[in-house]
Each structure stands twice: as C-alpha cells, then as structure tokens.
What does this fold into?
Amino acid sequence: MSIGQDKITNTTSTVNPPAYAAPYLAYGANEAQRLYSTGGGLNYYPEETLAGFSPEQQMAMTLQGNRALSGSPLTREGQSLGLNTLRGDFLGSNPYFQQAVLDPITDQVQGTFSRAGRLGSGANQNVLARSLATPLMQNYENERARQNQMIGVSQDLAQSDYADYANLAKVGAMRQDQAQKQIMSNIDRYNFLQSAPTQNLNQFLGQVGAAAGGYKSATTPMVSNPLNQTLGTVGNILGIGSFLGLGG
It folds into this structure.
C-alpha cells in the first residue's frame, strides 16, 4: 500500500445490557421458552361459537314448511272454481235461473195464449221461444264474460302454487345458511389448530427478540490516510515552533 492510499479498518462496538438487567432478561427468555414448550395461550375457545335456532324459529320453520307442502285451502278452492269456470261448467247451469227468470216468462206467455184459446198453437210456441231466448242469451253471455275474466287471472292462480314452493325453499335456505355457518365455525377451529404451532413459534421468537432488544454488536468501518496524518503532524509541529519563536 502506498503512503497516499486510504486505509480502512473495522471497529466493532458492543452494547450490553446493564448488569442489574441481565437476570431479568434471562428470566424473560426462559419464560418464553416455557410458554413455547407448553403451548400456553393457544387453546381454542372451548364453548359453542355459533348460536343455534331458537325454539320459536324451529316451530315457525316447521309450520311454514307444513303449510308450504299442504298449500292453502283457499288457493285450492279458488283454482278449482277457476277451472270449472274456464271449462264452462256454469253455462246454462244456474240453479235459480229457471225459477227466477224462465218460469215467470213461460207462465205469462202461456196464460196469454190460454185466455185466447190458442194454447199449444204454433204461434204460441214461437212467441214462447222468442221470449225465452233473450234471457237465455243474456245468461250465456254473462257466464262467458266470467270465463273471459277468469282467463285473465288464471296465470295468477297457477303461479300461486309456486308461492308455496318458494316459502318451502325459504325454510330450506334458512337451514342451509345455519348449516353453512356451522361448517365455517368448524373450519375456523381447524385452521386455528393447524396454525397454532407456527403462531406459538412466532410468539416465542418475538418475546426473545423483545427481551434482547437494544443490546447488540455493531461494526463500523473507519477510513484513515497515513500521508494526511503525517502532513497533519508536521503542520502541527511547525505551528507550535512558530508559536514558540523557533523559526528563522
């Protein structure tokens, strides 16, 4: 190495804990070792972590499921009546129409022709037929109008079955959701136990690191130049000689 080249040396400094703190740090490290060995503090919560259905919820789901399976009697009757109407079962089958409408008309026509001595004649039959035709036609049209109205609501009546199915599906969805929550709770427990050793080790290492915190060794490079140091020394000597009056 030439005289003008920099010289690099390493200086190591060690910071140790105070003597009075050493026993406590050793105790902390020993406690960390003990906790790590025994697995302390890594037990899963021992009680249930998921609330089950209440008795009221169980009863409500049972009743709702039974109703969904059996359907509504009102809905069944409405569907039956709608089907009968659409099939025309009520066309000309009004049980009161004959007595309330046709019989009075018949009695009036037949009485008129009887008093005239023409009861049973061709004219009598024609008049009676025409007299009955209008109310019969009106009765038929009224029922046909009801059929047309029923066509408009038939889709709703048909869909009412699916409302029962949907309610049953809701009960199933509630049970499925509760079962899924139970599965997730079991998964959390499983994952906890699987990761417990790693967490325990990390806790151990963290406690040891905290116990030794701030106390370490550090190496610092030091740069020096012999020529500069020599020149500096000569300069210092000359300066002192000048100060003392030794110069020419």
